[in-house]
Design brief:
heterodimer; A: 768 residues; mainly alpha; two-stranded antiparallel ribbon; elongated; B: 141 residues; 2 strands; 71% helix; flat
Chain lengths: 768, 141
């Protein structure tokens, strides 16, 4: 059951606020992701190359949205990363925010995010995947805006949500096109239908939509700017979302869909260009940063660029390098983020210009940082080295554009190396004097150095045991993406070859940049002031707010009559349009078989309604409307609809009660003094009433499909065990609608509550 | 706003009967006119009478739980009923039924998730009506 881990993590989230308030050690919550990790690992290791474990539960099957889950080589690898890193993050967060009043909220959101992310990588249905995709956007919005009292943090969280959310909409459009083109909503079937997709006339549109969605999620240029800003999140969040998990979702999806979409210039060209641009942008902007977390955020951009570039190349070697690089990056980047948080936690600053020589005060953290930085820098024998070697191997094996690829990769890797040392080495080993006023810096508690150290050691162990990792993890992932087994194994050492030479060049160049890192820091402000895509975003959001403000001023005047008029005018227009479209006047002749009682009731209701309009007191209006309601209830009763009649009478009674409460507060009934406005109101009322009458009469004549009511009545008892068909429709046949209405009721009640609470506050302010 | 003594006395006498009636209405709704919506409105009207007669505070005390809490409960109950079908493989909101029991006086009892869902409707509707009435009364006071 692949749904259970997702639910288990969500359940852990639900209990975490209570655990955080109790005496139970908070880090024990890590047992949930640890259990999921162990279970996934045992399932994953039993999985053969190219095999999958799939299962499905029904959902909205007729609409193509089913709860289809699959554990395959690539999704499983990411699921392992999510649950494994997630376990460490929970431990880390419990130490990082120990005693914080909102630790429970953070853990709740982290677990919800983890559950959504796990669902995303295990989903086999594109609609289900989209649901999880959006859930990760929403939970990440709440996580980035965790310090919600800080206005800047809220704005940055909103930016991340709007960019990834807009991308998500493009993605949904792409998914719908893809699903209808491939004639399946299951990813495992879509990837087999590549020829069908590529020969379709909408191929270009759907590919563009999917690339836009993935690029927004995985922060590709020009939609990259939200990621560095998302560093407003607490460090455990950045370490989890912005290194190992959420930002990989776009890359994950592109890789997963590549068998269905690749092979065209659009796919390979745009991904290569996007990837290269992101790689270089991240590297260049990263080098000017002085904040540890922002440095790491820009290197994440670079790595996401490399991954996209590799998917764009799409050869077996490229996909293999992509998997290795992704795995290595998740291990060292999460570790480095956590180290940055630990340093911040102990010294109170993340500015590299104020950090140095921390290795004496924080020896264990320093070791963790060193190991992670070396892996990121691509030094042998770390796993990062393996990743870099394979990237170069991919380049040297390319037939065309190989040189361009190698130049981009080498330059990017040089910067990555320099940035790795700047983030992981500089604070601990450099001679910069430590500037942490009022602090005696000492080693952090185990929960703050344990998790990064564990990840960094993984990076070392994976590098030393590259062959084993290749067999157990990388081979399966590559086979799952390319739908055919990998032809060669993974190894750390390739002998003296061109890739090794390139590695040496990278190392020399990177060290040179690192040695001169201080030269560029004074120019940071000027470089960052260059307008980029983020200023376009600012302008758009600003204009949107302005348009909304103007629109609100016109529509939301605050006068109830204006609102009613707008609603009724819109309804009249739409009904009238529909009426004219389906043409023809209904038969308006009155037959001879007219019944006396209903006719009397109708006249009574109409008369009372007219009376309500000319009544001179509110109480009179109330009585008249009561008569209308009761007359209608009696009509229902006459036509044997007791349920409707009872409901109508009860609603009528409660409405009268409610109105009685407020009737004395209302101003006296006032005649409209302007004759023009009064005439317009009469016209509107007559138009609406007359229109409704015509529509109802025409609906009686116009039977486009066999009536469903008799069908429902025959189903009612055999299928739903109920003889009252109205009730069965409400709670069984159309229960989803009812559920939606219940939610509407709740929202309306909360609206009333907040409106009146505001009045109360205003009155209290005025009174005091 | 202080209501009348007669209304208050009558409301307090009627309340248990109205609540009982609302539950009966809810229960019979699956086969005969009635159901969660009507039942919820009936229950709300019982408490609304107390609110009119003895003030909103007295009605809140008689109700014991917050109306918003009632709505939350209702939504949760309906959600549980909806999800039950999903986990038994029938899809969201698919009805699950227990076997029929025969009880003396009441007759055949047939319970299932649609009835549980209807009870969610009952709670939500009652909570909504009371929330609105109480808020307005509080505002008028």
């Amino acid at each position: 059951m692949l749904l259970w881990p997702v639910l288990l993590l969500a359940a852990a989230g639900l209990i975490s606020p209570y655990v955080a308030r109790s005496r139970i050690p908070v880090w024990l919550l890590a047992a949930a992701p640890a259990g999921v990790f162990a279970w996934l690992l045992s399932s994953y290791l039993r999985l053969g190359v190219g095999e999958t474990t799939a299962e499905s539960l029904g959902w909205f099957d007729p609409l193509g949205a089913s709860l289809d889950f699959v554990l395959d080589g690539f999704g499983g690898l990411l699921a392992l990363l999510i649950s494994g890193v997630g376990t460490l993050i929970v431990i880390y967060a419990s130490g990082y925010l120990a005693g914080h009043r909102d630790l429970g909220r953070l853990l709740l959101l982290l677990f919800f995010f983890m559950a959504s992310m796990l669902g995303l990588v295990l989903a086999d249905n594109v609609i289900l995947l989209f649901v999880f995709w959006e859930l990760t956007s929403i939970t990440s919005y709440l996580l980035v805006g965790f310090n919600h009292e800080d206005k800047a943090a809220r704005a940055k969280a909103l930016q991340a949500l709007l960019v990834t959310g807009a991308g998500g909409l493009a993605m949904l459009a792409g998914f719908i096109l893809l699903g209808t083109t491939a004639e399946s909503w299951r990813l495992s079937e879509i990837v087999q239908a590549g020829d069908l997709v590529r020969s379709s006339p909408v191929y270009g549109a759907l590919t563009a939509c999917i690339i836009i969605g993935a690029a927004a999620k995985s922060a590709q240029v020009p939609l990259h700017f939200w990621l560095p800003n998302a560093m407003a999140a607490p460090t455990p969040v950045s370490a989890f979302l912005h290194s190992a998990t959420m930002v990989k979702a776009g890359v994950f999806l592109l890789a997963k869909l590549s068998p269905a979409l690749d092979g065209t210039l659009l796919w390979h060209g745009s991904l290569s260009v996007l990837g290269s641009a992101t790689l270089i942008t991240g590297a260049v902007l990263g080098i000017v940063q002085t904040d540890l977390k922002r440095i790491l955020a820009y290197t994440t951009l670079s790595v996401l660029g490399i991954l996209t570039l590799l998917i764009g190349i799409g050869t077996e070697l490229a996909i293999k390098s992509m998997v290795v690089f992704l795995l290595g990056h998740a291990l060292y980047k999460a570790a480095l983020f956590m180290v940055a948080g630990t340093v911040d936690h102990e010294t109170g600053t993340r500015d590299v210009r104020r950090l140095g020589g921390l290795r004496r005060a924080m020896p264990v953290t320093a070791v963790a940082a060193l190991l992670a930085a070396f892996s990121k820098a691509g030094f042998p024998p770390f796993f990062g080295f393996v990743g870099k070697e394979y990237v170069y191997k991919t380049g040297t094996a390319l037939d065309q554009a190989g040189t361009a690829f190698i130049v981009v990769a080498v330059v990017g890797n040089m910067f990555l190396l320099a940035l790795a040392l700047k983030a992981g080495l500089h604070p601990f080993w450099s001679k910069t004097p430590l500037d942490a006023p009022g602090r005696t810096v000492h080693e952090a508690p185990w929960s703050l150095w344990g998790p990064p150290l564990a990840l960094a050691l993984c990076g070392l162990a994976f590098g030393l045991a590259a062959g084993l990792v290749g067999e157990a993890l990388v081979g399966k992932a590559v086979a799952a993406i390319r739908l055919e087994p990998m032809t060669s194994s993974l190894s750390l050492w390739h002998g003296l070859s061109l890739p090794l030479v390139l590695s040496v060049v990278t190392m020399a160049g990177g060290l040179l940049i690192y040695a001169n890192r201080r030269l560029i820091w004074p120019h940071r402000g000027r470089i960052e002031a260059v307008p980029g895509p983020s200023s376009v975003y600012e302008t758009m959001v600003g204009n949107l707010a302005e348009v909304a403000k103007r629109k609100t001023r016109i529509l939301q005047s605050g006068a109830l009559t204006r609102y009613v008029a707008i609603v009724i005018a819109a309804a009249t227009f739409l009904l009238g349009w529909k009426f004219l479209r389906f043409g023809g006047w209904p038969d308006l002749t009155i037959g001879p078989d007219i019944e006396i009682l209903p006719a009397v009731l109708c006249v009574l209701a109409a008369g009372a309604a007219l009376g309500a309009t000319i009544a001179t007191s509110r109480l009179g209006v109330l009585v008249a409307l009561g008569i209308v309601g009761i007359a209608i209830a009696l009509l229902f009763l006459h036509y044997s609809a007791p349920d409707l009649a009872i409901t109508q009478i009860l609603v009528e009674a409660l409405t009268v009660m409610l109105l009685m409460l407020v009737v004395y507060k209302l101003p006296p009934v006032r005649r409209e003094p302007r004759p023009g406005v009064a005439a317009a109101k009469w016209a509107l009322a007559a138009g609406f009433g007359g229109g409704m009458t015509l529509i109802v009469l025409q609906a009686l004549e116009l039977q486009v499909a066999p009536s469903i009511s008799e069908q429902l009545a025959t189903w009612s008892y055999p299928a739903a065990h109920g003889r009252n068909v109205v009730n069965v429709i409400l709670v069984d046949f159309r229960a989803l609608d009812t559920f939606g209405e219940m939610i509407v009721l709740t929202i309306a009640a909360l609206g009333v509550l907040s409106l009146l609470a505001r009045r109360k506050r205003k009155r209290e302010d005025a009174g005091s | 706003m202080k209501g009348s003594f007669i209304l208050e006395g009558a409301a307090r006498l009627l309340l248990p009967w109205l609540v009982a009636l609302s539950l009966v209405t809810f229960y019979r709704g699956h086969h005969l006119p009635g159901g969660g919506f009507i039942g919820g409105l009936l229950a709300a009207s019982g408490f609304a009478l107390i609110a009119l007669g003895a003030g909103e505070g007295a009605a809140r005390r008689a109700l014991r739980v917050d109306p918003v809490g009632l709505m939350t409960c209702g939504l949760t109950v309906a959600l549980v009923a909806a999800l039950a079908g999903l986990f038994r493989g029938g899809g969201l909101l698919a009805g699950l039924w227990l076997p029929v029991w025969s009880l003396p006086l009441i007759g055949d009892v047939h319970l299932g998730t649609p009835m549980l869902f209807d009870f969610g409707v009952y709670l939500t509707v009652a909570g909504f009506a009371l929330q609105v009435i109480f808020s307005l009364l509080e505002d008028a006071a």
